[in-house]
Amino acid sequence: MYIQIRLARPSDVGGIFRVRTSVNENLLTVAEMAGMGITEASVAEMIHNAPCAWVACDDAQIVGFSMIDPDEGSLFAAFVLPSHEGKGIGKELVQAAEDALFSKHALAWLETAKTSRAAGFYRHLGWGSERDIGDGDIRLEKRRL
Questions:
Q1: Residue ranges making up the domain that contains 53
Q2: If you average pLDDT over every residue of the chain, what do you get?
Q3: What is the domain count for the chain?
Q4: pLDDT, tens digit (0-9, with 9 covering 90-100), for 99-126
């Protein structure tokens, strides 16, 4: 299996949403995302306006993605299909996001549930300076080396 990590294109949004609605943890439906203002159109526009998302492709199928807010310096999404977990794809997607964040910011941040597998994953990748932000969520930070 060869997994390619590349910048996302607006035409990838359907695959990104398929991944996002197929995960085991922090699952959101299309309707729930729309209620938060996250739609296929809004994500396509973000991708069109600035390099802010990366996809992992197994052949032509999108199996994971990461996404940042380049202005705020935050990593706000990193998801991999359950069938492709444990293969290093998430780590590569986060690395791509970190590279972009650290090209503009000395400090990057993210928010996640304190007891989630994601929190442990990010800690393993060197994210720290943990701060409780309420409702069971934490903020983690990482500094540019």
A1: 3-143
A2: 96
A3: 1
A4: 999 999 999 999 999 999 999 999 999 9
Give percent of the chain above pLDDT 70. 99
CATH number (domain holding residue 123): 3.40.630.30
Instruction: For 46-63, write each residue's pLDDT tens digit.
Output: 999 999 999 999 998 999
The strands making up 137-143's β-sheet, listed across from edge to edge, are 3-7, 53-58, 61-69, 74-80, 107-113, 137-143, 128-134
CA distance 100 to 110: 14
The long-range contacts involving 115-122, CB below 8 angstroms and separated by at least 24 positions, are 116/25, 116/26, 117/25, 118/25, 118/26, 118/78, 121/90, 122/94
d(CA 12, CA 76): 18
